[in-house]
Design goal:
Blueprint: E1 3-7, H1 13-22, E2 27-31, H2 35-45, E3 48-49, H3 53-57, E4 62-65, H4 70-77, E5 92-95, H5 101-114, E6 117-120, E7 123-124, H6 126-131, E8 135-140, H7 143-153, E9 157-164, H8 168-196, H9 201-208, H10 216-227, H11 236-253, H12 258-272, H13 283-287
Parallel strand pairs: 1-2, 1-4, 2-3, 4-5, 5-6, 8-9
Antiparallel strand pairs: 7-8
Helix pairs in contact: 8-10, 8-11, 8-12, 11-12
The protein binds NADP nicotinamide-adenine-dinucleotide phosphate.
NADP nicotinamide-adenine-dinucleotide phosphate binds near residues 97 and 98.
């Protein structure tokens, strides 16, 4: 059993923190900016909550965070009430936010200066993966503290791996999002075409999902795409945040991402249609306007 803090009880963080307590058996303290969510979590899981990230981090062996973007991460880590002011020497800070590799390296260096370790550890698997404790966790940072953190992360991971130095977890998550973007547009176009062709979409997908066109998106999203339902899942706003991180990194490393850039613009149109909070499979909605 370890002493663990969890900062950020959103769609992902709330169930992840729950697994640390229920499955991991750890002594868990939570912090959430909107205190009502922390109170609800404490009522459900019999842990503790703290009023600031700093107070939550004090005296812990591990501090995990899962907030929105780079700016949010700066707010919960740095400054007088930020977690970094409270983390004890020798502890490990694990960040599950999808953020830039630049901030991962910055926070890694800031943590080292203060005598503790930082692991960037973005996740994939969505809300269902968090709730079922079956996330894929992509990590960057030093090997020794990673080895300690991996045992804690195991409470909500199906796959956890260190891919390299600080920032490597975020870079791997970028690859994940690059692979998804074009694929979802292709799936949207396929379903849209099948409808226009007068085919039975269910029958078509049941057939081709047994062949080379199969994908997670196809198996998990074709029914709702066919029904025009998008009020769940991974929000378009979040995807645009992730794609902008990928495109900025590509400008730095010289990678050529024409489809990723195009899909980002297609999502901008979905936002204009009122779909900012729709699931990313809503790319089909702009084909069927
Ligand atoms: P969410 O439901 O919007 O939750 C965000 C959490 O961060 C909330 O607890 C929020 O606090 C907190 N927060 C945001 N800005 C903050 C700030 N400036 N200071 C303090 N706390 C702040 O988001 P989510 O879906 O859990 O996603 C969290 C991260 O995981 C994102 O980076 C996202 O890209 C990534 N991710 C999400 C999914 C998914 O399917 N949802 C999948 C993979 C990765 P309040 O409650 O006060 O707003």
């Amino acid at each position: 059993m370890a002493k663990v803090a969890f900062l950020g009880l959103g769609v992902m963080g709330y169930p992840m923190a729950g697994h640390l307590k229920a499955k991991g058996g750890h002594d868990v303290t939570v912090y959430n900016r909107t205190a009502a969510k922390a109170q609800a979590w404490v009522a459900q899981h019999q842990g503790r909550s703290a009023p600031t990230p700093r107070a939550a981090a004090e005296g812990q062996d591990f501090v995990m965070a899962c907030v929105g973007n780079d700016d949010d991460l700066r707010q919960v880590t740095l400054g007088p009430d930020g977690a970094f002011a409270g983390v004890r020497k020798g502890a490990v800070f694990v960040d599950h936010t999808t953020a830039s590799a630049t901030i991962a390296r910055e926070l890694y260096a800031a943590a080292k200066e203060r005598g503790f370790d930082f692991i960037d550890a973005p996740v994939s698997g969505g809300q269902a993966g968090a709730e079922n404790g079956a996330l894929t966790v992509m990590c960057g940072g030093d090997a020794e503290p990673y080895g300690r953190a991996e045992k804690i992360i195991a409470a909500y991971a199906r796959m956890c791996r260190r891919l390299g130095e600080a920032g490597a977890g975020q870079l791997t998550k970028m690859v994940n999002q690059i692979c998804i973007g074009g694929l979802v547009e292709a799936l949207a176009e396929g379903i849209h075409f099948a409808k226009r062709a007068g085919l039975d979409v269910e029958a078509v997908i049941e057939t081709i999902s047994k062949g080379a066109a199969q994908s997670w998106q196809m198996e998990n999203r074709y029914k709702t795409m066919n029904a025009g339902k998008f009020d769940f899942g991974f929000a378009v706003d979040w995807m645009r945040k992730d794609l902008s991180i990928c495109l900025a990194e590509a400008r730095r490393n010289g990678a050529n991402l024409p489809i990723t850039a195009l899909v980002d613009q297609l999502y901008a149109e979905v936002q204009k249609m009122g779909g900012a909070r729709w699931d990313t499979s809503s790319l089909i909605a702009r084909l069927e306007r």
